[in-house]
Amino acid sequence: MKNRFFSLCFLTAVLFISQAQAQQTASEYFDIGVNKSKAGDFVGASQAYSTAIAMNPDNPSSYFNRGLAKQQLKDHRGAILDFDKTIDLDPKNSLAYLYRGKSKSEQEDHRAALQDYNRTIELSPEDAAAYLARGTTRAKLLDYRRAIQDFSKVIEVNTEDVNKFQAYYSRGACKSRLEDYPGSIADFTKAIDMNPKRSQTFASRGFSRLRINDFTGSIKDFDEAIKLNPEDSESLYNRGFSKTKIDDFRGAINDFDKAIALDPQNVRAYYGRGFCNSKLNNQKDAINDLTKAIEINNVNIDSKVVYTGRITKNILDELRNVVQEKGKINEFSDDRSEAYYSRSVAKFRNGDAKGAINDLNKSIELNPTYAEAYFYRGFVRSSTGAQKEALQDCSNAIKLNPKYGEAFYVRGIIKHALGDDNGGCYDLSRAGELGYSAAYNVIREYCN
What we know:
Radius of gyration: 29 Å
CATH superfamily of the domain at 313-446: Tetratricopeptide repeat domain
Protein name: Tetratricopeptide repeat protein
CATH architecture of the domain at 313-446: Alpha Horseshoe
InterPro entries: TPR-like_helical_dom_sf, TPR_rpt, Ycf3
Order of helices and strands: HHHHHHHHHHHHHHHHHHHHHHHH
Distance between the termini: 71 Å
Keywords: Repeat, Signal, TPR repeat
CATH class of the domain at 313-446: Mainly Alpha
Pfam family, one: TPR_8
GO cellular component, one term: cell outer membrane
Largest sheet: none
Number of helices: 24
Number of strands: 0
Helix content: over 70%
């Protein structure tokens, strides 16, 4: 009996020691993750935290820190999952809500991000970073008045100059959007006093001064912006525009020349230079410049399609052809639009793009709400080089089916190929959100 009691005690002690060792090992891996994060090795940090989680799956700090590492790796979806788990284990962790909101913002899910920032502020009413993040998100949602309230709160409670500077700048930008230019100028001036080395603040104040016809003041601000950032094409254009207002046409042309040299697609600079050339009686040059101002990236004229983005025509064709027609049979309706649609697919696969478009035209005529027919017509048109018409078809498909991932994908790569990088990447992001995973390959290659 005594031996059995001793054996039981021994096994219990061994189990206790093993658990303690495992816990200690998890703690060690957690510390490794912290050190790797400090060193900028976020891949290694994420792996270390994953090992710590495998050994101790109930430690919210491991999930939280892994989420932070994933954020640094731009893996915002993975980060959100980790912050979800952090909150499950520690529902009052205000920072988990804050950083989850930031990842949601990076995914353009601003309304969901707003809810997380609200929760952060409920748990931590004096968290200046939360007010700053919420104000930024409200501004993105065009809720400028409430954004201003948040930025004012940052200024009130914050003791860190970097956040206070950002709050003054962002509040000024919101006031400018509301056409409160004197108010925006006051805020930009505060921001400049705190950080006189940021070109964008001078550029923003210069724009507000331009809007109240303080052309001398705006030129001085653009001078400073350009000194700090000589490759700021936008400030060069705005300084040139300000100079035209005081009839300094030659000085304006000099600025427009520099703006165009930095950004050959700056249509407003061509417009400004054309205007000045006309004033100086250089009519031939004026006509050339104004023609470019009309034609460059103008989807509203029947000019030749120009592939101006990093996605060239050949790359566009390659990326588009990744898409596979879904091939799911639809109910056969009395108008027989489905039959025209299916025949169009067969014709296109057989090399008859013109015949496919004719069938798709008929399918849409019979059923104007047929989202798949619009999308496929856009797909076929894109293959023939009719990119503007293809964009319209994809947009119509999206209007009819806002969750049409393939339509967002194709519209995104076409926009990017035609020079609309931001619009294209936004569409690709939306395609990925809707489950069309091929979009992420394009995002990694062309949107960063």
